[in-house]
Structure to design on (97 residues):
């Protein structure tokens, strides 16, 4: 999502390594191999690595999704659960920036 936001702004990121593991992210940055984009909660966990973090504005918004096993036939209980999740998100006030 962050890379797509950069591309939308007309900036093509030079991606050396792409991964989905927080420990690797801090390790690569600590080794001086570049910078990383992450969320503020994970960034706070990196205090032990003596890394600096600065907020990026405007901040990207997350899009939440419900996931399930592809091709799975839902039981009545799963249908009720999915409907409850969707209803909960529909009731949340939207945030605009």
């Amino acid at each position: 999502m962050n890379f797509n936001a950069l591309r939308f702004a007309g900036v093509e990121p030079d991606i050396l390594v792409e991964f989905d593991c927080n420990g690797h992210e801090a390790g690569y940055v600590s080794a001086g191999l570049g910078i990383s984009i992450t969320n503020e909660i994970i960034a706070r966990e990196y205090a032990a690595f003596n890394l600096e973090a600065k907020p990026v504005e405007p901040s990207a918004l997350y899009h939440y999704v419900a996931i399930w096993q592809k091709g799975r036939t839902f039981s009545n209980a799963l249908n009720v659960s999915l409907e409850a999740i969707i209803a909960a998100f529909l009731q949340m006030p939207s945030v605009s920036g």
In short: The longest helix spans residues 76-91. DSSP finds four helices and no strands in the chain. The two ends are 17 Å apart (CA to CA). The helical segments are 2-8, 22-30, 40-45, 76-91.
